Amino acid sequence: MLPEDAVRATRTMGEYASLIAGLMPVAILAALGAVVRSIQARRCGLKAVGVAAAGGGFVGVLVGLLLDQTDLPMGVKAFLVGSGGYASGELLKIFMVRACRWAERAVPGGK
Q1: Which of 8, 34, 69, 92 has the most crowded Cβ, counting Cβ within 10 A?
Q2: Which residue ranges traverse the bilayer (predicted)?
Q3: What residue numbers bound the domain in which 35 lies?
């Protein structure tokens, strides 16, 4: 990588650094909730735990972004983010079903 490319990448990341730093604890907390659920379900393989952590982190970021708009106490926000991560597998399945139903209604003929 050329030095100019590194400077350009640093400037670009600098614009989003505070957002990334703010969402990192949220993603980690939700990912931990998803890992706990995966282990409780006796899916302890590296792949299963990794997928659960990635899904939990994604849901946690979404929940965290929604909760940033509220005046709830930090403890309540942490509980909701962790719970969102714990239930992330089910939440993503529910969202997928609803998105498919919406798409079938939006496109005439369902195709």
Answers
A1: 34
A2: 16-36, 48-67
A3: 4-106
